Amino acid sequence: MGGRIYIADIDAANRISLKSxxxxxxxxxxxxxxxxxxxxxxxxxxxxLIVLGADLPGKSLLTVLSEFKAHDRQNETPVLVVARxxxxxxxxxxxxxxxxxxxxxxxDEGLFLARVRRALRAHCTFRRLRExxxxxxxIGFHEGVPAFTTRTSLVLVSDDHDTxxxxxxxLADHMGASVDIVPSNQALRHLGNVPAPDVVxxxxxxxxxxSRLVAELGSRPETRHVLCVLSxxxxxxxxAIIAMDVGAREAVPDDIDPRELALRIGNxxxxxxxxxxxxxxxxxxxxLATRDQLTGLLTRRAGLAQLENLSDRLRTxxxxxxxxxxxxxxxxxxxxxxxxxxxxxxxxxxxxxIVENLANSALVVRYGGEEFLAALPDIDLAAANVAAERIxxxxxxxxxxxPGGASVSVTVSIGLxxxxxxxxxxxxLRGLIExxxxxxxxxxxxxRNQVTIxxxxx
Length: 458
Hints:
Elements: E1 4-8, H1 12-24, E2 28-31, H2 38-45, E3 49-53, H3 61-69, E4 79-83, H4 88-96, E5 101-104, H5 109-138, E6 153-157, H6 161-175, E7 178-182, H7 187-193, E8 199-202, H8 210-219, E9 227-232, H9 238-246, E10 250-253, H10 258-290, H11 300-316, E11 321-328, H12 331-356, E12 363-368, E13 371-377, H13 381-397, E14 400-401, E15 407-408, E16 412-419, H14 429-445, E17 451-453
Parallel strand pairs: 1-2, 1-3, 3-4, 4-5, 6-7, 6-8, 8-9, 9-10, 16-17
Antiparallel strand pairs: 11-13, 11-16, 12-13, 14-15
């Protein structure tokens, strides 16, 4: 099923028509019109999308919206309203309550389904980021969602300056936003040279080029999370359908009341900003959960997972790769003589020198204590040995500065094993690590401060 959608409307014919349209697209549609406790059910069961008629049995639409939104302050669950007769006052009140859209009957089927798809995509993203944030929080690394207090910035893309100027002024007044007008042939260049705005509104006079512009904005890192809104001619909704399917977050008729447009953009910005906050908080939490806080390297658990993926990919591609197992020699003496602060300084500096002396493609892990693990992709034995020796010399060459002004000389022992197409049969990652570990102990046994190569049969 494509998503769980609840419908409630006093008009049976309208319910049947909407349910038929949605069911044909393989959505799981549930009619909840007869539920006397509609608000409570919506809060309790949290469907993926809610479609409400402007006229409901029992409570009024605005009462149901108020009761539901009291438990959905971030507009996580999208709500569409279907009205039999146009009513500007109801529209403004519904958008002020946080609904996704108000559709007047008869509903254009293509436009209606495009809005459903768009709303469900946003809801899926919201749910995925929320679950990721909860996962990170469950292990104690979630830092909370940051608040957004900056003034909204909007770029209005239009080739009709006379029409765009009054709209820009009205949006600036209703939203308290800064609005720039940019012609369509300069839009991508302009947006690539300035800080990304919060919103890009594409006027209906640029409808022929709107889908390409939306797709281009969505493909570029600097504008990927910009809220794209398309204005379209009511008689030609095709451009709106295509634009929403390629990434536009909203499509509005070009004769829309500017007050309604401001409310709709504001609702989407609220969701967008909360999503961006979830994304950033989760990323920071995930970084804390997967990175060793002292050295900045991957933790053992996270590192082994990435190493497993890397080794599988390289073996599939038939590439050689090296595994280095590194251990700081006599590290206990550093802790005994200089305390844990001195030991931390040595660990941090040795980690820095390891990373500094390997290619960017290398994956480096703090394996535990004073042990480090590194994977070097697409490399032969001779080059891997050179890289290991470079690390060994870099660690030995300069004493490590310690807190208080002292310094200490340290060395590392390194075990090296090779994987990829040169091994037949090819050992798994665990086998390569064990071989590198045995080579490391060989280096220790032979006097430390040296690189030893695993000589298992190849």
